[in-house]
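Why should sequence recovery work at all? Because a backbone constrains its sequence more than one might expect. Tight turns favour small or flexible residues, buried strands favour hydrophobic ones, and helices have their own preferences. The token representation captures these environments compactly. In the example below, the structure is given first.
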């Protein structure tokens, strides 16, 4: 579809978010199975921006944002809260899993919802919290061991400049906070949000961006321009890529993505094993496949282009870098591995599922 001047405005993109099957019909021809999925109860909210809808002729992208019946299949070991975040909730908006880091869930809204989302239990749903952020800021002030705050959600870059500036000003007023990060997929799905005004706010508060990209098909001219603008403003960027079956689980696809990111001054940081959230079995590769892929990249592409392959230990054990098969052992339908505390965790990795 032709992109008008109006559609280049980020607020227009959000106001015209595609959230129904009929709206989606205007952009792509749905398959019978995709069409049928909208008649079922979809566990995760559905919405995409018009910008991202324009990229969905690429099969790898459409399968990550259009619902399918697989989402209602609860596979072995899958959980609504696979990372045990609720067990580490310190305040209504804070998850405190690592000693020196907190996750600040600033919003439950995303402009585009990924079907494999770890927080499908909460994103896109009205917040039940009638609390202000002040309790969370006070908690951080009282816990001087906290040095690193990651704002996530939802996608914090969908918040207005004034709200974001206020949040960042408040967190930067706490003397022991040394690192402030924002997790976002906005440059891929809503690149027009990256304005000079937003960049100035991020630069002023010395924010690092942890960006979510899964395929080189996302690196549109608009996305490239957005990342170059961020880089020109001196904003540090790293990427997190979820390893997804049939979408990016081959060396060439990952190589194309990681080199494409480097060319936009985004450092590939994590290649994440897909979290075992409910209804995600069709997205998850085996752990052995992940190890094989990361080994195929080492020595064959620039070291700068190689991320760490990690499993986020189910239950709240944190991210565990996996470098070789010797780190894991199999027990039935699970693989077991040791986290940074020396504790053993298990990840569901059934041999014959889907």
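From this structural description, the recovered sequence reads:
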């Amino acid at each position: 579809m032709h992109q008008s001047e109006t559609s280049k405005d980020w607020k227009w993109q959000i106001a015209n978010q595609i959230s129904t099957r009929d709206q989606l019909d205007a952009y792509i021809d749905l398959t019978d199975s995709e069409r049928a999925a909208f008649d079922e109860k979809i566990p995760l909210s559905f919405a995409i921006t018009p910008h991202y809808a324009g990229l969905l002729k690429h099969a790898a992208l459409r399968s990550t944002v259009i619902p399918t019946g697989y989402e209602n299949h609860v596979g072995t070991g899958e959980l609504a809260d696979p990372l045990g975040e609720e067990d580490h909730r310190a305040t209504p908006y804070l998850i405190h899993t690592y000693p020196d880091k907190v996750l600040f869930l600033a919003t439950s809204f995303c402009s585009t919802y990924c079907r494999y989302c770890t927080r499908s239990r909460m994103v896109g749903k009205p917040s039940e919290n009638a609390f202000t952020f002040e309790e969370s800021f006070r908690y951080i002030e009282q816990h001087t061991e906290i040095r690193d705050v990651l704002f996530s959600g939802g996608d914090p870059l969908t918040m207005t400049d004034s709200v974001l500036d206020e949040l960042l000003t408040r967190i930067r007023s706490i003397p022991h906070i040394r690192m402030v990060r924002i997790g976002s997929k906005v440059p891929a799905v809503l690149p027009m949000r990256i304005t000079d005004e937003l960049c100035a706010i991020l630069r002023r508060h010395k924010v690092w961006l942890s960006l979510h990209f899964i395929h080189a098909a996302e690196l549109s001219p608009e996305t490239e321009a957005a990342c170059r603008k961020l880089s020109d403003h001196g904003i540090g960027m790293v990427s997190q890529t979820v390893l997804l079956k049939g979408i990016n689980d081959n060396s060439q696809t990952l190589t194309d993505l990681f080199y494409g990111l480097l060319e936009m001054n985004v450092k590939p940081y994590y290649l994440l094993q897909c979290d075992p959230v409910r209804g995600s079995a069709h997205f998850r590769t085996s752990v052995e496949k992940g190890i094989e892929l990361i080994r195929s990249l080492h020595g064959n592409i620039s070291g700068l282009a190689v991320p760490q392959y990690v499993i986020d230990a189910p239950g709240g054990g944190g991210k565990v870098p996996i470098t070789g098969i010797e780190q894991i052992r199999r027990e039935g339908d699970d693989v077991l591995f040791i986290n940074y505390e020396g504790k053993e965790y298990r990840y569901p990795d059934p041999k014959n599922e889907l």
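A few observations help interpret the result. The chain has a mean pLDDT of 93.
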